[in-house]
Amino acid sequence: MESSPLSWDEFLASSKELLCISQRLNDGWNWSDTQDGWGYLHKTELKSSSGNESADDVTAEQPGKTILVWEYHILYSPAYSCPVLYFNVRDQDGKFIGLDSTIGQLRFPAKTGRNYLSVVSQSEHPILRKPFCYLHPCHTSDLIIAAEKGRTNLLIGWLSCVAPIVRLELSLEYAKPNET
């Protein structure tokens, strides 16, 4: 790699590999092209608000459980030369649960403490032009450089580091070498 952590071409190649694995696993990742020649990965999962059930175990009939719709988007940031994870959490009627409630659903590393604003914020989605939460990309290059050791897919390496924060389930199958 050159001076930037991840180029657009590397992001595209890594995204294609992630999509191939996702298709094999049938776990819901998709790609959407944009009118300006860019694109992004996206996935939606249902989760219990308690966080103890996997998406497969969540049903609307569970008394006392709130079912939440988690929407994940991975975009490329030309400014930071790295991926950025955008996400939203809605109730089943499609209403955003609010930033404070969303923050309460996240799993921050212990050293973050209550300083969650150094990790997550809410802003306009650069493609959809709707409010979305996102993980700050300012330290993503450090994660990509760390993930570079021993990995061929830097996007998957980065995603495996940040997925637990946003309760994104990522199969261990993503860590296996690609069998193409």
Quaternary: single chain
The overall pLDDT average reads 82
Beta-strand segment tally: 6
Strand order of the largest sheet: 1-2-3-4-6-5
Low-confidence stretches: none
Order of helices and strands: HEEEEHEEHH
Distance N to C terminus: 23 Å
Count every helix, treating DSSP H or I runs of 4 or more residues as helices: 4
Give the domain tally: 1
β-strand percent reads 25-35%
Shape: globular
Helix content: 10-25%
Give the biggest sheet.
6 strands, antiparallel
From the 3D structure, determine the CATH topology. Yope Regulator, Chain: A
Shape-level CATH architecture = 2-Layer Sandwich
The CATH class assignment is Alpha Beta
Could you provide a short overview of the structure?
The protein has 4 helices and 6 strands. It is an alpha+beta fold. The chain has a 6-stranded antiparallel β-sheet.
Task: State the main characteristics.
single chain, 180 residues, Yope Regulator, Chain: A, six-stranded antiparallel sheet, 24% helix
Could you explain how this protein is built, in words?
This protein is an alpha+beta fold. The protein has one domain: Yope Regulator, Chain: A, CATH 3.30.1460. A hairpin with a 4-residue loop joins strand 3 and strand 4. The two termini are 23 Å apart. The model has no long low-confidence stretch (mean pLDDT 82). Pfam families: Autophagy_act_C (PF03987). Keywords: Autophagy, Transferase, Ubl conjugation pathway. Belongs to the ATG10 family.
SSE layout and pairings?
Layout: H1 8-25, E1 30-33, E2 39-48, E3 67-77, E4 82-91, H2 99-105, E5 120-124, E6 131-135, H3 140-148, H4 154-162
Antiparallel strand pairs: 1-2, 2-3, 3-4, 4-6, 5-6
Helix pairs in contact: 3-4
